[in-house]
Amino acid sequence: MTEWLNVGKIVNTHGVRGEVRVISRTDFPEERYAVGSKLYLFKNDQPISLTVASHRKHKQFDLLTFEGYHNINDVVQMKEGILKVKEDQGGQLAEEEFYYRDIIGLEVYTEEGEFLGKIKEILSPGANDVWVVQSAGGGKDLLLPYIEQVVKHVDLAEGKVTVHLMEGLRD
Questions:
Q1: Burial of 90 (0-12, 13-18, 19+ CB in 10 A)
Q2: Using one digit for the tens of pLDDT, what is the confidence trace for 10-61?
Q3: In the beta sheet, which residues pair with residue 86?
Q4: CA dihedral in degrees (86, 158, 123, 136; nearest 10)?
Q5: Rounded to whole angstroms, how far apart are CA atoms 10 and 5?
Q6: pLDDT-based confidence at residue 110 (cuts at 50, 70, 90)
Q7: Superfamily of domain 4-89, CATH level 4
Q8: How far apart are the first and last CA of the chain?
Q9: Where are the domains of the chain?
Q10: I need a labelling partner for 82 at 20 to 30 A (CA). Which of 10, 92, 114, 167 fits?
């Protein structure tokens, strides 16, 4: 059975020349949306294979066109569709790089062994990702920047992250 990775959602059309607005959900937008890349549109029963013809950024969206879809009438039915790739199309990760799906749900511990909670979300506000940890005690979420001074070790096999809590990270 084919496993699929969600790379984005088509939220609207853009202009009249077949461009669609995509809210990206991928760690690799440059690779996923490169001209010639294969994406699969999931909207109804059967996925539709699409080939990226162009990609550009506009505000918070990725704007894409697809080969064979040249005007708004060709793409309007794609609205609300989910773009996916086959899992075997996953990008190659460097050491100390992880897929978001592998990080969410991991347990977070301090270097001293204190359990802080589980990672529930990853934010990408700027220069580095921020891992949102749902507090074990039910308090405010803990926001951890994904930088080497804070995240000391990620063990996917054990489902555990070890962190150094720098001053000011916890209220």
A1: middle
A2: 999 999 999 999 998 877 788 889 999 999 999 977 899 999 999 999 888 9
A3: 4
A4: 140
A5: 15
A6: very high
A7: RimM (2.40.30.60)
A8: 46
A9: 4-89, 100-163
A10: 92
Computed on alpha carbons and rounded to an integer, the radius of gyration of the chain in Å comes to 19
For the stretch 119-127, contacts whose Cβ atoms lie closer than 8 Å and that sit 24 or more positions apart, written own/partner, are 119/161, 122/146
CA-nearest of 159, 160, 164 to 146 is: 164
Place of tokens 């001074």: 149
| Adjacent-strand bridge partners of 87 | none
Q: How far apart are CA 51 and CA 144, in angstroms?
A: 37
Q: Which tops the pLDDT comparison, 32 or 99? A: 32
CATH superfamily of 100-163: PRC-barrel domain (2.30.30.240)
| Per-residue pLDDT tens over the stretch 139-163 | 889 999 988 899 999 998 899 999 9
Q: Which residues sit opposite 122 in a β-bridge?
A: 131
> Above 60 in pLDDT, residue 90?
no
Residue that wins the pLDDT comparison between 127 and 112: 112
In the numeric block, the tokens 């990775």 are attached to 5
- Looking at the chain, list the stretches that DSSP marks H as alpha helix, in order from N- to C-terminal side: 29-32, 72-75, 100-103
Note the pTM of the prediction, 2 decimals: 0.58
Quote the tokens at residue 164: 């150094």
